[in-house]
């Protein structure tokens, strides 16, 4: 999709020499990674921290130097996509199942840029399911606990079997009737034993790169 390419490529301009860059997951940030590989050939020096096995493979194929798992201390800039963005820049992520590593990277990054086509903007986050990564042990109990927060849960499946994340966990997609306070909900979900992470990303995005109604790339900042 052209809008994903334009937004994704623009974000690559924010990477400077010497940076450690969190590389997100998905079809929009894919274009960022491609552009970064192009800039690398022109002399840009940086190192990447991939947020998924999928991104790790893409980056490795393009020859992007990656920081190995045990050596990630500082991330200058994180760039990633989103499934939904509300007017307060609260995000829902995890459509690709990479939310746990994505949140670790977004939280650690000094700056976090989101790349998204305009279709990702929603007036109401409750219109979108929140992915919750749960460890398989006693996941029925975790699910029951989640339901008590007032949502409908659905185990994510792939080819008729449970979808397994890069961390060996399940994903429960949770639909709430309303979300009054996303920050509070993010914390409430995280408090449930068995929950590894949830796809609500509050207070994280510094900039959102998207397209306006004229199809021009715009950078929204808080
Ligand atoms: O959260 C994600 C993966 O876990 C992605 O960032 C999100 O699904 C957006 O993907 P795309 O850029 O392909 O629309």
Automatic annotation (TrEMBL):
A molecular function (GO) term: ribose-5-phosphate isomerase activity
EC number: 5.3.1.6
SUPFAM superfamilies: D-ribose-5-phosphate isomerase (RpiA), lid domain, NagB/RpiA/CoA transferase-like
Catalytic-site annotation from UniProt: 102 (proton acceptor)
Top EC class, one word: isomerase
InterPro entries: NagB/RpiA_transferase-like, Ribose5P_isomerase_typA_subgr, Ribose5P_isomerase_type_A
Keyword Isomerase appears in the UniProt entry: yes
Keyword vocabulary terms for this entry: Isomerase
Pathway involvement of the protein, from the record: Carbohydrate degradation; pentose phosphate pathway; D-ribose 5-phosphate from D-ribulose 5-phosphate (non-oxidative stage): step 1/1
Pfam families, alphabetized: Rib_5-P_isom_A (PF06026)
Entry binding sites for substrate: 25-28, 80-83, 93-96, 120
Domain of life: Bacteria
Catalytic activity: aldehydo-D-ribose 5-phosphate = D-ribulose 5-phosphate
Subunit structure: Homodimer.
HAMAP family attached to this UniProt entry: Rib_5P_isom_A
Function: Catalyzes the reversible conversion of ribose-5-phosphate to ribulose 5-phosphate.
Listed name of the protein: Ribose-5-phosphate isomerase A
Species, as recorded: Peribacillus deserti
Native organism taxonomy: Bacteria, Bacillati, Bacillota, Bacilli, Bacillales
């Amino acid at each position: 999709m052209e809008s994903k390419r334009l937004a994704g490529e623009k974000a690559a301009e924010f990477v400077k020499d010497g940076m450690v860059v969190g590389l997100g997951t998905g079809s929009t940030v894919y274009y960022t990674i491609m552009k970064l590989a192009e800039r690398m050939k022109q002399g840009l020096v940086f190192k990447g921290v991939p947020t998924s096995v999928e991104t790790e493979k893409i980056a490795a194929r393009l020859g992007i130097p990656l920081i190995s798992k045990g050596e990630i201390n500082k991330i200058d800039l994180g760039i990633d996509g989103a499934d939904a963005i509300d007017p307060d820049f609260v995000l829902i992520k995890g459509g690709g199942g990479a939310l746990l590593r994505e949140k670790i990277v977004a939280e650690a990054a000094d700056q976090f840029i989101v790349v998204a086509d305009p279709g990702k903007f929603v007036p109401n986050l409750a219109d979108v399911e929140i992915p919750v990564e749960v460890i398989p042990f006693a996941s029925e109990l975790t699910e029951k606990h989640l339901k008590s927060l007032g949502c409908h849960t659905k185990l994510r499946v792939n080819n008729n079997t449970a979808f397994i994340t890069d961390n060996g966990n399940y994903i429960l997609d949770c639909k709430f009737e309303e979300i009054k306070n996303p920050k509070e909900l993010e914390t409430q979900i995280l408090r449930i034993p068995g929950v590894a992470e949830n796809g609500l990303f509050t207070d994280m995005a510094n900039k959102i790169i998207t397209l306006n109604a004229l199809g021009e790339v715009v950078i929204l900042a808080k």
